Automatic annotation (TrEMBL):
Its cofactor is L-ascorbate. Keywords: Dioxygenase, Iron, Metal-binding, Oxidoreductase, Vitamin C. Residues 105-207 form the Fe2OG dioxygenase domain. Coiled coil: none annotated. It holds the Pfam family 2OG-FeII_Oxy_3. Signal peptide: none annotated. InterPro entries: HIF_prolyl_hydroxylases (IPR051559), Oxoglu/Fe-dep_dioxygenase_dom (IPR005123), Pro_4_hyd_alph (IPR006620), Pro_4_hyd_alph_FE2OG_OXY (IPR044862). This is 2OG-Fe(II) oxygenase. It comes from Pseudobowmanella zhangzhouensis.
Length: 219
């Protein structure tokens, strides 16, 4: 008999509904439970097991625009790929979410990309937007936190703002297994410095606007 394939952990339909409802009502969704505990454990081991040399200094912008700017962010990143088991499972999980959100909200999400991020003590990411209207295809941002027993005074909160507001709308501790998903163009946000290492997976669902610059495309 063939050994059965390990089941791919996926969110429940109820959780998909809940995420979609939160996104419609407030533009962001927070999930505190839902990820398979064994997947979380493997992702945590994976990111902690990477050497410093496996990470790259994070930049701002993509491709040729990618600038290193340590006044804005000081974290290090490593993109996930399908060649590692835990990374692959996570990517499949997010693929399930992509399809579920498209079904519920007709968002036309085309793909998803993500990286591990390591913020060493004192690292930060100043207030920014993940997407600018018309200039990027990032539609939804999602951050999963992988930090056990985060304490109140460890710092490292994600602060999220409404545009033009000085007071944050939300302050979120980067607790193990928590994920926040939000509209990339709508919410400026920042990562405060922490007293301890802070690990996460930050990713983006994107739309395909490769025809965006083509006027009157041939049929
Ligand atoms: O880690 C976080 O809480 C947010 C990270 C972030 O804003 C980003 O990578 O664009
Ligand atoms: Fe961001």
């Amino acid at each position: 008999m063939q050994p059965t394939e390990p089941a791919i952990p996926t969110f429940t339909e109820e959780l998909y509904d809940n995420i979609a409802d939160q996104l419609v009502e407030q533009g962001y969704a927070i999930i505190r439970r839902g990820f398979d505990p064994s997947l979380l454990m493997q992702l945590n081991q994976r990111v902690q097991g990477l050497d410093d040399g496996d990470f790259q200094q994070a930049g701002i912008g993509r491709g040729d625009d990618n600038q290193l700017n340590e006044t804005i962010r000081t974290d290090s990143i490593r993109w996930l790929t399908h060649s590692n088991g835990a990374e692959c499972q996570f990517l499949q999980c997010m693929e399930g979410l992509r399809i579920a959100l498209n079904r519920r909200l007709f968002m036309g999400l085309f793909d998803y990309e993500c990286h591990f991020a390591h913020y060493a003590p004192g690292d930060f990411y100043k207030r920014h937007l993940d997407a600018f209207r018309g200039r990027t295809n990032r539609v939804l941002s999602a951050v999963l936190y992988l930090n056990h027993e985060w304490q109140d005074d460890d710092g490292g909160e994600l602060l999220m703002y409404e545009r033009k507001q000085k007071q944050p709308l939300l302050s979120l501790r980067p607790e193990y297994g928590t994920m926040i998903i939000f509209l990339s163009e709508r919410f400026p946000h920042e990562v405060l410095a922490a007293k301890r290492d802070r690990y996460s997976i930050a990713g983006w669902f994107r739309v395909n606007n490769s025809l965006g610059d083509v006027i009157d495309p041939a049929r």
